[in-house]
Amino acid sequence: MCVKGLCFLAVLCGLAASGVLQVSGMRIYTSGEMEAVNGTDARLKCTFHSSAPINPNLIVISWTFRPLKPGREESVFHYQQRPYPPLDGIFRKRVLWGGDIMGRDASIILQQVKFTYNGTYICQVKNPPDVHGAVGEIKLRVVTTASFSELLLLALAIGGGIALVVIFLIIVVSCRRCKKKRLRHVEGNEEAPRKERKDPTACHPSRAVHLYMSETSIEIDSSDGMISDPSTPSSSSSESEGPSSDDDDDDDDSD
């Protein structure tokens, strides 16, 4: 029994080494379901992963369409070294290559979708020696208007953008107000000491009265521009007044 088991394992190892027994490493990823508004373009996204190195000259990509109603499958797109759009059928001149072989992208674009495009789209990729594996499917539903979920996402995106703009404006306005308050506070602190300063030309009230009294005791003679003191009478004026009174007495005696 042990000998038979060892022989079986040896055969399996030999087959695996020779490449006869090989597990396929091709894996395909699609969105599963999607919606498209009538008359718009729809991108059918299909990506793949292969355990073998990507060879652009050997890789083969094919897209087929299975309608909702019973009917045969229809070729949508074919790629082998270069894209081959359909030459007839409902997808004629309506399919564009939107993938990248080296980027492991096998997507296509349906232009101006119609209600007849409702159905299942099948994406199959072969990259020898990875020629076996599951295929990717996308169920497309063409609608008149966007569904509630898509409208909700669009509204959330627009609302989020508007909210960000409003928050940014509020922050800017708040910063400007803070700057203005700081400037006013600084200007108020600078003006306060200036108001408390005294006029260097001013003096104490007692000194001001003294100066006023001294200024009022000085008079200017307009005849010769000389300054005289009116508070002290001159001796000449007193002498001239004296004789005049004596003369008056003499006149009285003579009478």
Annotate the secondary structure layout.
Layout lengths: L1 H17 L8 E4 L1 E6 L4 E3 L1 E4 L10 E8 L6 E7 L2 E2 L10 E3 L10 E3 L8 E8 L9 E8 L4 H49 L8 H12 L2 E2 L6 E2 L6 H20 L1
Parallel strand pairs: 2-11
Antiparallel strand pairs: 1-4, 3-9, 5-6, 5-10, 6-7, 8-9, 10-11, 12-13
Subcellular location: Membrane
GO biological process, one term: cell-cell adhesion
Main location: membrane
Give structural attributes.
3-stranded antiparallel β-sheet; 13 strands; disordered C terminus; Immunoglobulin-like; 6-stranded mixed β-sheet; alpha+beta; 255 residues; 4 helices; elongated
Q: How many E-type strands?
A: 13
CATH class of the domain at 23-149: Mainly Beta
* Helical segment count: 4
Could you give the order of strands across the largest sheet? Answer: 2-11-10-5-6-7
CATH architecture of the domain at 23-149: Sandwich
Mean pLDDT: 75
Transmembrane segments: 151-175
Family: Belongs to the myelin P0 protein family.
Subcellular location: Membrane
GO cellular component, one term: plasma membrane
Q: Brief overview, please?
A:
With 255 residues, this protein is an alpha+beta fold.
